[in-house]
User: Fold these one by one.
Assistant:
Number 1:
Amino acid sequence: MNSFYIVNLLIYAAVDAMACLGLSQQFGIGGVTNFGFIIFQAAGGYTAAILALPSQTANGGFQSYIGGWHLPFPLPWIGAAVVGGVIALPFTFLVGRRLRGDFAAVGLLVTAVLLNLLVTNYRPLLNGDAGLSLIPQPLQGEFDPQSSGYGWDFTIGALIVAVAVYFFVRRLTESPYGRTLRAMRDNDTVADSLGKNLLSLRTAMLVTGGAIAGLSGGILVSYITTWSPAAWGYAETVVLFAAVIIGGTGNHLGAVIGAICVPVGFEEITRYIPTSNNLPPNLIPSLEWVAIGLLIVLFLWFRPQGILPERKRVIRVPDTAGVPAQPGARPRPAPDPASVPEPRPRPPGGRTVLEARDVSRDYGGVRAVSGVSFRVTAGTVTGLIGPNGAGKSTLLAMLAGTLPVSGGQVLYDGKDVTGLPAFRRARLGLVRTFQMASEFKRLTVMENLLSAVPGHRGDSFRGALAGPRYWKKDEDAAAARARDLLERFGLAQHAGSYAGDLSGGQRRLVEIMRALMAEPAVLLLDEPMAGVHPDLARTIGTALTGLAAGGLTILMVEHELAIMDEFCDPVIVMAEGAVLAEGTMAELRSRAEVVEAYLVG
Amino acid sequence: MTAFLSSLGFGLVTASVLAIAATGFTLQFGVTDVLNLAYGAVMTAGAFVAYVLNAAGVSVWIGLVVAMIVCGAGSVLLNACVYAPFQRRGVSPITMVIVSLGMTLIIEFGVQAAAGGTSVSYSMSDGPSLRAGGLDLSVVQLVVIGLSLLVMAGTHVLLRYTRLGKAMRATAANKTLARNCGIRTGRVIAVTWAVTGALCGLAGVVFAMDAGSFGATSTDLFLVLILAAVFLGGPGQAYGAMLGAVIIGVATEVSAAYITPDYKYVIGFVILLVMLGVRPSGLLGARA
């Protein structure tokens, strides 16, 4: 064991750990599957190289490359991080909301393959296939890079940067912003419907991961002093993914362990395999790749959570909680759902808060909703019934913005919101729930509720970096509100359970409570009582009417007529994509066409 | 003009290889819902099966048939032992893609470990070359084009006129509904893996014939073209994949003649990214 060997090992460990932390943040926390991750490390490497190298003519002229600014340390490292982040921006169009995650991943993989091909073949840019060499090391004018002292200083520098990166991603993750990212990872459509801007979140993750990867590439290049396309084949990304999956997706410490096990470990193990002339060439490297493939598949099957599973975040509700929100909290039109006000008689002829005008939706050639118009009056619990396939859920999705309309307009609070995406409508107070189970599985029940809180100071990149002291008050207030809701719906003892582990009925409750945490003015509920015990359904219904009396407007799709009878007024009947009738349940029962279409049969 | 015609000839051959591969890929994805990135690796495995037989003195055409059988059976096994269990567990589509990437490494580098890292080629005669109207194609190239036409016609007959094809289309459209209608979707999916795996093996061997010499990692870039053809036509759309293959195959070779061969894959890449960004359902796919 000489000191050179240990220095080498530690620097590689630091670089790989950094790259894995970047990927862990991007993929493990943000759920952005970037199969082109290695591009960003490569970009950082090249950037550090051309910033540090002297101009190509001054460098003997045997390499051709752009730049060559001969900048002093630490500018090449900073430049590497900046470029790694900036080149992530063009990729955001692949990870927006519209494209399936696996298709986007394929797009990024293909980009990695092709960029490698381009850099390999186009020599003037970055010296092509041969790559760049003789890259100056940091401060090599002042110190002797060959000395052992220099090696150790470099090691310490690299380790300090790696530790800093660790604390950076940890701070991001262990914040309300990190919770939002994990919510998006677990179910992006639902996060969207709760007011989360997926495009901006994913862009932030691509840029953050890219900058970290770029920095790792810059540090690596300034240590090994060469950089060529062979160092960043698309398969290198798979190695990093293997590391993160094996270490534990969603656990940053796991990512570090994965980095030590996979990229570093494989390099070291093969060092000890005796070379023999009898072996065919390429056998050992080939088998290494096979082993990495096997590790990925076997881990995903036998231990998908990795060596260190994602930690469960238990959120303490402060004892002082329950005190009214501090003055200076944002004024909200919606009532505080946690405190049910005394039922007040609804003013007659209230104002219209939500309106559909001639809304229609085509699926291929099928018209699921055709020209539906109706108004929802503020403070009502409006029911929406109709046989299966009547277009109720589609209509709800169009009202909330989850689905675009094929024609017509949606008006909310007098404004045309037809062109607004779901998250913007949610931020205006138009919030929906889903027919299918839509809890964030790997968030606890408490976290599910907190994830929906609007305007949380810690729910932004900057807020997260400002640290807990900046957002703790908001968090405590929200946690207190969530606890009150949980107690009211009898789920307080499950606050710390993963939402994915609850029963079907409990998950429905979580979803409704989460929607309430979003402080809606209009709540669109898609079969909130489906699969819920009748007693519980009654509790939910009573709570909802109470909230409506306090000013909340509810539009509810439901099949159970008893519930409609008891809680909903008025009720809209849909059949075959159109509104058939509207009125109180008693009126509807007396109308022949309604009875024929739905109430009997 | 000659440059254009000769590149058009190359383009037709590339398009033919691509059409076989892309039809298999898109059927596989459409029916089984697995975005199998290991498809390129299975192609390579097929090419090497034929090579091993060929090196032992067997005609490459027999090797081609054996490669089809091996890849068909291998794909059925790949699904039964890896993809289907993961799907039954209900993992996300992204996890499936990661699994398929893992399988890519296992198969591709497994082949490389067995075959060594050097490029190999079949010993076969290209046959006399035929000229017609400026096009200059060898007999082998014509056979490749013929095989591709046969595959496309066969796919059309399969999907349009057979019970199996109907069942495949039904399974692709809605698996649960198809099962409730009495279609044994499990069997349909197994047969789909067999058929598309055989197409994959066929594509691997004709790809190797067309390329002249090939190694274990030769299909990495070709997979980009397959994906481009598939997404151009619309994922899951058999006719779309055929159309996409013709467009991309010809565009690749013609651009290679006029720009530089080093960048001939770039056009496929650009098409793929544009389709993913603008219209992921493809030219022939329904609008999402």
Number 2:
Amino acid sequence: MRLLYFAWVKEKVGRASEDVAVPEHIATVAELIVWLKSRGPEFANAFEKQDVIRAAIDQSHVRHDTRIGGAREIAFFPPVTGG
Amino acid sequence: MIRVQQEDFDIGAEIAKLKADRTDIGAIVTFTGTVRDQDGAVEEMTLEHYPGMTERELSRIEAEAYARWPLQASLIVHRYGALKPGDNIVLVVTASEHRDAAFDAAKFLMDYLKTSAPFWKRESGPGGSHWVDASQSDTHAAARWRKTKHAAE
């Protein structure tokens, strides 16, 4: 699965994207975040305020309780500030 | 139509293109968002975005505006990259037979764009640089349109 990070999430995890093998028991975006936090201090730091992080599956906004099955691309980012 | 680009845009040229060879349009509303400096604190603003999703979100928002108002034409142009105070950031143009639809649709497009298009602003100045925080008032402005839609149903 391809993971993408933007803005301060990207800066904190130290990469813009990566391909990861997500364990099969990870079912939702929220569970994926918990799993990511266990991967290292940079992830624990980036996802510390878990509720603030926004997610998109295959380029559509999703809530944290959304199931990730079948996703090709999941992105994590702060609340948007365009316009 | 939507465009995501680094280059600046020319508002007059965009309006001229939008109404070229058309005589059915009665009202054109434009909104331009520009980089604002607060007391010399901002020397540069960098806009990051999510290529692919940005275009999808802007198209989705635009389609929603067409579903709500009798629009004859519309355009959203959003810039990314390094910008200076005074530079253009975003342009929204809406055209309709009468002004109400054009005004309302332009405000709707901006309110929705602000809370759903994946852009992030980073400001730099003499005091260092920081990511701009999302604004509560923007979230409330977008939420108001959801209430309006329900009231109409």
